[in-house]
Amino acid sequence: MTGPTIAVDGTPLSRPMDGIGRWSANVLRETALARPDWRFVVLGFTDDRARPYLLPDLPNVERVLLPVPRRAYQAVYSLVARVPVDRLVPRVDALVSTNYTAFPALRVPSVVTVFDLAYVDLPDVIEKRNLAYLRKHVPRSMREAAAITTISPFTAARIDAEFPGHAPVHLVDCGLDPAFLAPLTAGPALPSGYVLAVGTLEPRKNLVTLLRAWSRVDPALRRAHPLVIVGRAGWGSRDLPGDVPADVLAEVSFTGYVEDADLPAVYAGATLFAFPSLYEGFGLPLLEAMASGVPAVVSDIPPFREIGAGLVDYVDPLDPRAFAEAISVRLTRAGDDRAAQARTRAREWTWERSGRQMAETIEGVLA
Fold it and tell me: SUPFAM superfamilies recorded for this chain (predicted)?
């Protein structure tokens, strides 16, 4: 290989059930495919040896474990000083860190990905420990990064407003998993005609509004179209609304985590997709629902407008009554040709394009 060597922060790649981890793995794979003469060194720590990594099986991608424990280095980095680890890694030309901050510390130009600014705009939905970390390190990364990438025009505009004088911001899109374009395979057993919600169960996903809305839907509709919520438990996930009747909550199916390979069948089996999230940098579940031809009722927030255009229904995420009405109308309305248009639109987002965008961003930094 005659091209540059690019260090990659392996932290998100060690979280296989994490949305940032999946984005990072897909972008790394497609960037490495787009630049086969480049070498990509994914940096981990000595205690990551047994940890599963979302590492693409490509000849120009390898993992290097630093001879220090992850937790110890993270504590020093966060609480004391950003100790550079240049001497512990092969010579590299740039660092790509897809987790908000330039981590680990290296004396090379950095490309930092910021997915959203929820910690600025809606701090109450961020776990306190993570909030303190982001407040401390993101502003410094924005000042020092050679380039910044993000996943939506909305977040790019927020970065411009919040961090004047920062390095150039480049869009590196999310992509649709090719599995959503392939023939369906059998998925988990679920009730017929269900309304689907997908996402980690945490305050930002606004499960409270969805359940309050669901309690307002006509019982006959609820019986005909039961609510299925797919997602692993996150922080604050036990805070179910006390004003929703227990018998309504008992009707809701919480599946927990569902394997990626089963998700296309889960979406395809739904009659309606509901996404009441308070804040997103992008909104991949909406893209997946659109690709599956499933009508959607979603929060009226900028990233969802960017994805869905006029092909889905938008509702105030803080208004359970409006959400209930929109869900009820969709469940009782005869066909809607927007779903077919939405399926076509969703196919515009590909990981191949994302890889090209990241490769071009890195090239700009190297130049």
Answer: UDP-Glycosyltransferase/glycogen phosphorylase
